[in-house]
Amino acid sequence: MSHSTKSASDWHKDTIAIHGGEAPQDPHGALVPPMYQTSTFVFDNAAQGGRRFAGEEEGYMYSRLGNPTVAQLEQRVAELEGMQAGAASATGMGAISATMLAFLKQGDHVVASDAIYGCSFALFSHLFERFGIHVTFVDMSDLAATEAAFTDKTQLVFVETPANPHLKLIDIQAVANFAHQRQARLVVDNTFMTPLLQRPAELGADLIVHSATKYLNGHGDVVAGVVVGNQQDIELIKLTTLKDMGATMSAHDAWLILRGLKTLPIRMQRHCENALQVVDFLQSQPAVSRLYFPGLETHPGYAIGQKQMRAAGAIIAFDMRDGYESALQLLNNLKMIKLAVSLGDAETLIQHPASMTHSPLTPEARATAGIGDGLVRLSVGLEHSDDIIADLKQSFATIG
Length: 400
Ligand code: 4LM
Description:
- By secondary structure, the protein is an alpha/beta fold.
- The protein has 2 domains: 8-261, Type I PLP-dependent aspartate aminotransferase-like (Major domain) (Aspartate Aminotransferase, domain 2), CATH 3.40.640; 265-396, Alpha-Beta Complex (Aspartate Aminotransferase, domain 1), CATH 3.90.1150.
- The protein has 15 helices and 12 strands.
- It has helices at 13-19, 46-53, 68-81, 92-102, 118-130, 143-148, 172-181, 194-197, 231-245, 251-261, 264-283, 302-308, 324-332, 363-369, 385-397, and strands spanning 85-89, 109-113, 134-138, 154-160, 185-189, 207-211, 225-229, 288-292, 315-320, 338-339, 349-351, 375-379.
- It has a 7-stranded mixed beta sheet, sandwiched between helices. Strands 8-9-12-11-10 form a 5-stranded mixed beta sheet, covered by helices on one side.
- Helix 7 (172-181) links the parallel strand 4 (154-160) and strand 5.
- Helix 3 runs parallel beside helix 10 and helix 11 (264-283) runs parallel beside helix 15.
- The longest helix has 20 residues, at 264-283.
- The model is unreliable at 1-6 (pLDDT under 50).
- The structure holds ligand 4LM.
- Residues 91-93, 117, 119, 160, 164, 189, 191, 211, 213, 223, 225, 341-343, 357 line the site of ligand 4LM.
């Protein structure tokens, strides 16, 4: 299922983003790898087909089981994250569900951060419970509470840092230590940071998941996911949950993400520079009562961020002093900035977590996680920062 690749161990991440997972020279000398837009692969003879299905011979069989374009993407993301192997999926939630369910059975227990993307919360709290998998959601910025949440049935720990939507930071290394003392695996959702800004593998993560819909692709034209880890764990995911539940990635989406990844390093740099300008502006707004951004020294997780993040990223959240109505007014009066969920695109996007991305949480769970009705989330794009700020400014001016 895999193909031979150049070794990328000595390359900088900027180079891996462009060359990682590269196949040997294309027979026609194509610079850009062809897209293997095919559902199935033709065998030389029946015996060969049998050997491939038996795992006795390398080679492709059927695109749900593996595809050369998808394999190249999997390898590139694995190399970027400093992991051995990757498995690509139809969506970020496809990656999270395939990863978690590959290691869980009825009666098992999961420790998860109480601040995570709304659909991850829905998956863990509603669906897992139906299958007898119990999840304890805990404020992982409280390490004592996190340690106390483990039981002798804990198999997996799930961390999202910075957390969606208000960027709570969790000490990955500390949580990895708790998990490993109890032979549990640590899964880190690195969507907000990308491998350029945070390397969970170096901090003890066993598996790293991404919504590739976001920065990895970066152009708002794909929904996709990927998980990376060691060879054995990734094989297990590929051969069980991903193969049999079937949320695999199409060659077309993989091809688009391979293209998007080439500019990930320079995009992240610009996203981060823009975000700093926007944060400066938001700090001066009386209508904003609280700003959540890990680059601010006032952020409760600032010290953790300094330790494990290379930059603060480009997602900003803020509470509107006058709550819900003024938040909606701000969103409705923007002209250039798009009112949409998702993040990590070239376009600056703004949304209202309580009624949109985090609506799957119960009101109680939202209250516990500190997601108020006046909270707004901004994904700072790649436009000129002056134009982003000008649009915000004119919309703030409409609020009485
Ligand atoms: C959003 N997020 O927040 P797919 N992990 C994280 C995420 O933010 C998301 C996913 C996984 C948003 C989507 C509407 C940290 C998604 C799930 O949407 O399944 O690719 O990723 O705006």
